[in-house]
């Protein structure tokens, strides 16, 4: 089955939390494993949504232990790697949904694109090239349902599931 | 819930595979999440055992993608970190059960002890200090059932589950 | 002594290469250790500049061996970590100079800011928040000499050298 | 030029420190870059020896900053990776000299052998297989001079220097 990461800031707006929760719930409802950073904000909201739908959600933690981890995780993976764990979240994902913006979130978006993993965005920061044009790659969605639809379509292109 | 890693060589004897399968099945039967390296040999046997018991088993892969991963994994995490992923397997575990010996397996045992994670061994390599005495730390079990019992007792001491 | 990373794409314009070479030379001429990703483009140009000035330049490689590494490195560190090595380059730096833009470069910029490391930019991509305003943090320089001056001033604030 | 890692416990005997210092000095005197973990004990002694000989010595630190790093390092690389940095030390080395024993040191020895890097030992722990025979791979040296000679011969076989 597919694995989709939901990335976003550890402190977020209520609107971002609601969007992340919807994304987590919709993904888990489709049987998709949800990956996230395992802490608060967008990460916790995605985990809560996935759990509501009875799905499997994995938190890849930067710390050496479970301190601060969301209680909605099926599996908490303390890595002790600090921010290097951002690489793991997107490496293990068939697609990444980004909700909101922060430096850590931007690093995940950039690492995903660097590695060829599809990225769908719901709001958040924008990236322009030296001429002021949007850098191609990330695909903006209008809402959680569209984000999930686009993420699964991209995952299917990247790694078709066998029947 | 606890998470216990089962570590061992990617090529193993039938006896080691049977032991690893028993360990995986017994752990998952207790509701414990099983962690492993995600490939063949002892790793695949532990994953198969966990799946038989209907449990959750996570494979932390050294490669950038799922190539060569066991099909019994609930979650496959390609890390692209090479052998540095050995650190992650034992860091995320409340206890480690080692089945058999290899250089990679020894690195996991040593990293677990370095970080204070309890280690239970079923056969495998032995470590002597400069005076020829066994280095204290790893605890030898007589069989899979005892290994699981010792691992859960050690995990309980290391991280008591709240009622 | 300080350590400053020079980050930029593995394929770059002649102007970017010239700027990176100037930055490497000016840093090494001040006795600063230069860190980079160790391969081509901006990385190789920074290494060449540092070597011209007789300095120490460390290449933190993504690969498992030295294949493709610049021949101007004082020390080549194959990590086998893939893109997770981007974290190491900026973590070990007192300041980061970014020359040009790419997804890998953006991940380094974002990881540096996430960890509080000062970032000076020479051209490259721009980052806007959801309202279209530049995200504060990175400081744009007009040329290599100003980039080096700003980087060393930022490094001094971040980690004052003892007399 | 070659790069050789010197690995050993952060707390060591005076004899181990003297041996590590000799190894560092002899390596640096041959123009070899010395790699180590960058902290105390065997690591600090190897760094001091390399510095005495006017060589380049790189400390690959587990921490996020330079706290506790030896003052004899040419380059200090804070990785923030915790014990995962052990992988980096041996991955970047053409050969590894092990002085003394500890769990961290054993992990480095095992990771080096897992990756095919030659290992020379000066004292330290011994590894026996299930039948009680020494596991082949590590080569014991009688003293620092022999350790350096064996390490460079092994490095030459692994990665011949171009004339």
Give the gist of this structure.
Chain A has 163 residues and is α/β, with parallel strands linked by helices.
Structural description of this entry:
The structure is a homotetramer of 163-residue chains. Chain A is of the alpha/beta class. Chain A has one domain: Rossmann fold (3-Layer(aba) Sandwich), CATH 3.40.50. Helices cover 38% and strands 20% of the residues of chain A. Chain A contains five helices and eight strands. The first copy, chain A, has a seven-stranded parallel beta sheet with strand order 4-3-2-1-5-6-8, with helices on both faces. In chain A, helix 1 (14-29) runs parallel beside helix 2, helix 1 packs across helix 5 and helix 3 (85-91) packs across helix 4. The model of chain A has no long low-confidence stretch (mean pLDDT 97). Chains in contact: A-B, A-C, A-D, B-C, B-D, C-D. Chains A and C meet through helix 3, helix 4 and strand 7 of A and helix 3, helix 4 and strand 7 of C.
Task: List the main descriptive attributes of the protein structure presented here.
homotetramer; 163 residues; Rossmann fold; 8 strands; CHP00725 (chains A, B, C, D); LDcluster4 (chains A, B, C, D); TIGR00725 family protein (chains A, B, C, D)
Strand order of the largest sheet of chain A: 4-3-2-1-5-6-8
| Helix count, DSSP H or I runs of 4 or more residues of chain A | 5
CATH topology of chain A: Rossmann fold
Largest interface: A-C, 30 and 30 residues
| Overall form of chain A | globular
Oligomer: homotetramer
Mean pLDDT reading of chain A: 97
Given helix and strand content, the structural type of chain A is alpha/beta
Straight-line N-to-C gap of chain A = 11 Å
């Amino acid at each position: 089955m597919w694995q989709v990461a939901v990335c976003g800031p550890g402190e977020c707006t209520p609107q971002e939390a609601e969007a992340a929760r919807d994304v987590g719930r919709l993904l888990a409802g489709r049987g998709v494993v949800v990956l996230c950073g395992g802490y608060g904000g967008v990460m916790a909201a995605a985990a809560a949504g996935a759990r509501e739908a009875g799905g499997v959600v994995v938190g890849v933690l930067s710390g050496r232990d479970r301190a601060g981890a969301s209680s909605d995780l099926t599996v908490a993976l303390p890595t002790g790697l600090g921010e290097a764990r951002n690489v793991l979240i997107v490496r293990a994902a068939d697609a990444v949904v980004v909700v909101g913006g922060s430096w850590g979130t931007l690093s995940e978006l950039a690492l995903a694109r660097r590695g060829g993993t599809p990225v769908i965005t719901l709001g958040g920061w924008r990236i322009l090239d030296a001429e002021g044009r949007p850098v191609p790659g990330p695909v903006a969605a209008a809402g959680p349902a569209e984000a999930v639809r686009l993420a699964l379509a991209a995952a299917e292109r990247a790694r078709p599931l066998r029947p």
